[in-house]
Specification:
This protein has 306 residues and is α+β, with helices and mostly antiparallel strands. The chain folds into three domains: 6-53, Uridine Diphospho-n-acetylenolpyruvylglucosamine Reductase, domain 2; 58-178, Uridine Diphospho-n-acetylenolpyruvylglucosamine Reductase, domain 3, CATH 3.30.465; 184-297, CO dehydrogenase flavoprotein, C-terminal domain (Enolase-like, domain 1, 2-Layer Sandwich), CATH 3.30.390.50. Helices cover 34% and strands 26% of the residues. The protein contains eleven helices and 13 strands. It has helices at residues 13-23, 36-42, 82-87, 89-94, 96-102, 108-113, 116-121, 128-135, 235-241, 248-261, 273-297; strands spanning 6-9, 27-30, 50-53, 63-68, 71-77, 139-144, 147-152, 157-159, 162-163, 171-178, 184-192, 200-210, 217-225. The protein has a five-stranded antiparallel beta sheet with strand order 4-5-10-6-7. A three-stranded parallel beta sheet has the order 1-3-2, with helices on one face. α2 links the parallel β2 (27-30) and β3 (50-53). The protein is globular, with a radius of gyration of 19 Å. The N and C termini lie far apart (39 Å).
Length: 306
C-alpha cells in the first residue's frame, strides 16, 4: 500500500511553509516520524499525499541559550531529539525534569530520532516531554505563513490529540524553557508497567522555587498526566502549597490534596481510576521531595538516565 506520493526535505522554515502552502492541505510536516508513520500505517491517520521533512532545518535542530531581562532560557528547536536533550549538561542541571522525562520516552532507538516538537505536536495528555515543558512553564514558537508567535505551551492544546498547530499549514519551530537558578529545582517521576515500551500509567513533573531563606515554597508548578483531556497544571495544589514551609510534612499534605482534587479516569490501556488516584499521591510526594532537595543543594543528578 502506498502511504504518500511525495517527500520533500526543507532546509529553512520559509521553505517548509512555502511547501505546505503549495500543497494546500495535502502535505504534512514530519520529523522523527515515530508517531506519525505508525499512525498512517495502522490506519489511524489518513494517508498523506506529501511529507515535508524538517530535520535539515538548522534553526529547528539546535539547542541554545538566550537571556531576557534577568532570566535565562534554553531554546530548543522543535526537531531536537530526546537523546540530544538527555545528553545536554545545561538541561540536566537547570531543567532536570525535562532530562528525566525525555530519558524515558520509548527505547534508545526511538529517542535517537523522536523529537521534542513531535512529542508536543501529538498533543497527548500523557506525553512525557510535554508534562515537563508544562511544569517548566515553557513557551512554544509557532510559524504561520504570515508571522511567528510565542504561546504559553498550555495554550496549544484543545483536546486529546488536538492542537492549535495545523501540521498541514503551520510549523512548530522552537521552545523557550526557563533555566533554574539556585533555590530552584525540578523533577519528573513516572509509573508504568514493567514490560519494556508501554504506555505510562501516570507521569508527574514539578518545579519549585524556594524563598531567600530556603525555608518556604515561593512558587510551585505541577503537571500530572493523564488526568484530563489536555496537559495542564494542578493549579489548586500549587496554590495550596505556595507560601508553606518547605518540609516533608507539608509535602505529604500537598500530595493528599492532589489525590483529593484530581480525578483520573479508568483506562483499559493504563489502569483503573482508583489505582491511578492512589498513584497521584505517591508521584506528587516523590517528585516534590526530589525537587526540594535539588533546590536546596543546587545539585541535580537526573534519575533513571544513563
Amino acid at each position: 500500500m502506498k502511504f504518500w506520493s511525495h517527500y520533500h526535505v526543507a532546509h529553512s522554515v520559509e521553505e517548509a511553509l512555502e511547501l505546505l502552502q503549495r500543497y494546500e492541505g495535502r502535505a504534512q510536516v514530519i520529523a522523527g516520524g515515530t508517531d506519525l508513520l505508525i499512525d498512517i500505517q495502522h490506519g489511524s491517520h489518513p494517508p498523506v499525499e506529501t511529507l515535508i521533512d524538517i530535520t535539515k532545518i538548522p534553526e529547528l535542530t539546535t539547542l541554545d541559550t538566550v537571556k531576557e531581562g534577568n532570566a535565562r532560557y534554553a531554546i530548543l528547536g522543535a526537531a531536537v531529539t530526546h537523546s540530544t536533550i538527555v545528553d545536554d549538561p545545561m538541561i540536566r542541571s537547570q531543567a532536570t525534569c525535562l532530562t528525566e522525562s525525555c530519558g524515558v520516552v520509548g527505547g534508545p532507538q526511538i529517542r535517537n530520532v523522536a523529537t521534542i516538537g513531535g512529542n508536543v505536536a501529538h498533543a497527548l495528555p500523557a506525553a512525557d516531554g510535554t508534562l515537563s515543558l508544562v511544569a517548566l512553564e515553557a513557551e512554544a514558537e509557532v510559524a504561520t505563513p504570515d508571522r511567528r508567535e510565542r504561546h504559553p505551551i498550555t495554550a496549544l492544546f484543545t483536546g486529546p490529540g488536538q492542537s492549535i498547530v495545523d501540521p498541514t499549514r503551520d510549523l512548530l519551530t522552537r521552545f523557550w524553557v526557563h533555566l533554574s537558578t539556585f533555590g530552584e529545582g525540578s523533577a519528573f517521576k513516572r509509573i508504568m508497567r514493567p514490560q519494556g515500551i508501554a504506555l505510562p500509567i501516570l507521569g508527574c513533573a514539578v518545579r519549585v522555587r524556594l524563598d531567600s531563606a530556603r525555608e518556604a515554597f515561593e512558587d510551585v508548578s505541577i503537571c500530572l498526566g493523564p488526568t484530563g483531556p489536555v496537559p495542564s497544571r494542578a493549579q489548586e495544589v500549587e496554590r495550596w502549597l505556595t507560601g508553606k514551609a518547605a518540609e516533608e510534612a507539608v509535602i505529604a499534605e500537598a500530595a493528599a490534596v492532589a489525590k483529593r482534587v484530581l480525578h483520573p479516569r479508568t483506562s483499559k490501556y493504563r489502569a483503573t481510576a482508583e489505582y491511578r488516584s492512589e498513584m497521584i499521591e505517591v508521584l506528587v510526594r516523590r517528585s516534590l521531595h526530589t525537587a526540594l532537595i535539588r533546590a536546596r543543594t543546587g545539585e541535580a543528578v537526573p534519575e533513571g538516565v544513563e
